[in-house]
Amino acid sequence: MFAARTGAGVAVFDLGWWNYERGLRRMLQGLEATPRDVGFVFLTHAHRDHLAGWRAMRQATYYIAAPELSRLTGAERPRGWIPRMAEWVSPMRYPRGGELRVVTFSRDTAFVLGADTVRAYLIPGHTPGSTAYLFRGTLFLGDAVTYSRGGGFRPAKRGFSDDTRLAAASLAGLWPRLPAGGVRYACTAHAHCTPFTPAFLADVAR
User: Fold this and answer.
1) Handedness of CA 120, 20, 127, 198 (dihedral sign)
2) Strand (E) positions, the chain?
3) Whole-number Å distance between alpha carbons of 120 and 65
4) What is the CATH number of the domain that holds 148?
5) 59-76, pLDDT tens digit by residue?
6) CA-CA 20 to 30 A from 35: which of 5, 54, 56, 137?
7) Closest among 79, 192, 202 to 139, alpha carbons compared
8) Measured between alpha carbons, how far is 107 from 67 in angstroms, rounded to an integer?
9) Which distant-in-sequence residues (6+ apart) come within 8 Å of 44 by Cβ?
10) Which of the four pLDDT bands, split at 50, 70 and 90, describes residue 47?
11) What's the mean per-residue pLDDT of the chain?
12) Other C-beta atoms within 10 Å of 148: how many?
């Protein structure tokens, strides 16, 4: 999870999973805010480990790619066998249709929040509506890029993803769409942020 105060209100990127309450509380305390102060939630995708905090922020406006909406509401299940197994072992309570205020988009889109702009880039593959968000020079990649100590940065992992070939192709198509000089850091959802450099791009492409 990442949170920032903008001129339009507090914005949060993804909503965590286990122990999200503690992480959310610490994150928002740094902004002198509470979950009820969150006005905007940007979801990279609708896997359960990115959604746990939604019930604490029902008042927010949620942004998610249109192909992902049926998964946000639980109408469609993940295709990757690991998230499917997780749902079978411990079903999650997803928001029902109409329970949240949701804005969807079907192409690369910019959202203005006061003096800030959040740029959304569709990168399908990990899930049908996987999205990267660029905000204040940081590119939030969700699970479209993963990191491990032994393997470095890589595209979305098998077992967790719908289509790993599409995921890798989507990443290759993302880099030219980003504004020149507009990205300083790239962050994966689960482990690691790093300077956005040619070395990072080469690592992902290996």
Assistant:
1) positive
2) 2-6, 9-13, 38-42, 61-65, 101-105, 109-113, 116-122, 131-135, 138-140, 145-148, 152-155, 185-187, 193-195
3) 9
4) 3.60.15.10
5) 999 999 999 999 999 999
6) 137
7) 192
8) 10
9) 13, 14, 50, 130, 131, 132, 133, 140, 141, 142, 143, 144, 189
10) very high
11) 93
12) 12
Pairing of strands 185-187, 138-140: parallel
Tokens of 92: 């999650």
Tracing tokens 């959040």 back to the chain, one arrives at: 118
Rg of the chain over all Cα atoms, to the nearest angstrom: 16
User: Exposed/middle/buried for 58, CB within 10 Å: 0-12, 13-18, 19+?
Assistant: middle
Whether the Cβ atoms of residue 110 and residue 3 lie closer than 8 Å to each other: no
Q: How far is Cα 30 from Cα 156, in angstroms, rounded to an integer? A: 31
Q: Which residue type, as a one-letter code, is found at position 68?
A: E
Q: What confidence category does residue 200 fall into, taking pLDDT thresholds of 50, 70 and 90?
A: very high
Domain count, the chain: 1
The predicted structure's pLDDT at residue 18: 73
Which pair of tokens denotes residue 105?
């988009």
Q: Which domain holds residue 166?
A: 2-205
Query: What is the structure's pLDDT at 162?
Result: 95
185 vs 77, more confident: 185
> Residue 175 in contact with residue 43, Cβ under 8 Å?
no
- Please tell me the predicted confidence (pLDDT) of residue 64: 98
Report, as an integer, the average pLDDT of 164-187. 96
Assigned token pair, 9: 């209100």
